């Protein structure tokens, strides 16, 4: 409810101050809600089916992102857009809550208790944060890539093409999530996450090396599929690593690894580009994408600090407090 009200306030804001307050409220409300929401997966799904369940969640997230992007593109009235998104948020939340009430609670390994910050928890958080810094570096610089590297004729044309690429990314992300469902249940989840990240990294390299629209489209498709695969494995690993006795709280903390990169990615990119005196040049998006490649590579390498036991691939995990 708070998130829906914040959405309405955001799209009805008449001043910069009101807009900033609404934005902070929106971020706060939805980040409070997302932890318990994501904890539904380990609460109601058997461990051996976490990959398939995470696949559905990642796929539906991609669909939701696509619906939001399309709504923002085709609904020109800000108030109508805010009302539509708020109604969609409340409807889907009500449907989820109603369905979850009728599900049998899956037996978990630990009783409810305090959230323990283990070494595996920290490593998963750091890995996810680094990968998401790479993701947001790509997202925040895509418009400049279209405008400066692909040479869009006007700012409006650059915005339109950027929107098309983002929607395409989210749509194929659902395909990647579907492809990762069974492998995430049958294979080492670190391997599945690495495969998805490798595709994302390859797409970034293609963005850096291409100057044509065809190359950008191919890179977008590869990046979207890879990202969908990564999301599935990422969620499945979290369901195994985070403390089962306080999964809702742990998921809330874990999701800070998405929020903080939204601040860190543009700040870090701006700092590096300023140091290189490239902030207004045509090479700036290429350098930004190269940074995203390195950030993603370091993040997925960090994931392998997690032991096989800590993600349920071996004997019962024994996590040492960080």
How are the SSEs ordered, and which strands pair?
Elements: H1 2-12, H2 16-44, H3 50-74, H4 78-101, H5 119-149, H6 155-186, H7 189-209, H8 213-241, H9 247-254, H10 256-275, H11 284-303
**How many domains is the backbone divided into?**
2
Radius of gyration: 20 Å
Strand content: under 5%
Terminal CA distance reads 36 Å
CATH homologous superfamily (4th level) name of the largest domain: MFS general substrate transporter like domains
Rough shape?
globular
Largest β-sheet summary: none
Number of strands: 0
How many helices?
Answer: 11
Strand-and-helix sequence, N→C?
HHHHHHHHHHH
| CATH third-tier fold name of the largest domain | Growth Hormone, Chain: A
- SS-based structural class? mainly alpha
Helical residue percent band: over 70%
Can you describe this structure?
The two termini are 36 Å apart. With 322 residues, the protein is mainly α. Helices cover 78% and strands 0% of the residues. The C terminus is likely disordered.
Task: Offer a few descriptive terms.
322 residues, mainly alpha, Growth Hormone, Chain: A, 2 domains, 11 helices, 0% strand, globular, disordered C terminus
């Amino acid at each position: 409810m708070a998130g829906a009200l914040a959405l309405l306030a955001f799209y009805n804001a008449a001043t910069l101050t009101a807009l900033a307050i609404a934005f902070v409220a929106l971020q706060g409300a939805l980040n409070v809600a997302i932890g318990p929401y994501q904890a539904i997966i380990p609460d109601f799904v058997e461990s051996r089916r976490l990959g398939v369940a995470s696949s559905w969640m990642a796929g539906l997230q991609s669909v939701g992102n696509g619906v939001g992007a399309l709504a923002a593109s085709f609904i020109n009235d800000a108030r109508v857009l805010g009302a539509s998104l708020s109604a969609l948020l409340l409807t889907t939340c009500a449907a989820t809550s109603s369905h979850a009430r009728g599900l049998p609670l899956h037996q978990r390994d630990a009783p409810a208790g305090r959230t323990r910050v283990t070494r595996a928890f920290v490593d998963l958080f750091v890995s996810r944060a680094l990968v998401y810094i790479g993701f947001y570096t790509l997202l925040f610089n895509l418009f400049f890539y279209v405008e400066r590297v692909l040479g869009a004729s006007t700012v409006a044309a650059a915005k339109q093409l950027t929107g098309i690429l983002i929607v395409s990314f989210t749509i194929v992300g659902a395909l990647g999530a579907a492809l990762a469902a069974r492998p995430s249940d049958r294979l080492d989840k670190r391997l599945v996450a690495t495969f998805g990240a490798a595709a994302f990294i390859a797409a970034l390299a293609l963005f850096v090396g291409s100057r044509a629209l065809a190359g950008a489209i191919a890179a977008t498709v590869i990046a979207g599929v890879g990202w969908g695969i990564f999301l599935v494995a990422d969620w499945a690993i979290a369901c195994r690593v985070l403390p089962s006795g306080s999964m809702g709280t742990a998921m809330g903390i874990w999701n800070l690894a998405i929020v903080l990169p939204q601040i860190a990615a543009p700040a870090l990119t701006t700092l590096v580009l300023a140091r290189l005196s490239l902030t207004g040049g045509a090479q700036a998006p290429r350098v930004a994408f190269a940074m995203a490649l390195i950030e993603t590579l370091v993040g997925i390498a960090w994931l392998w600090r997690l032991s096989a036991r800590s993600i349920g691939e071996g004997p019962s995990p024994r996590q040492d407090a960080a």
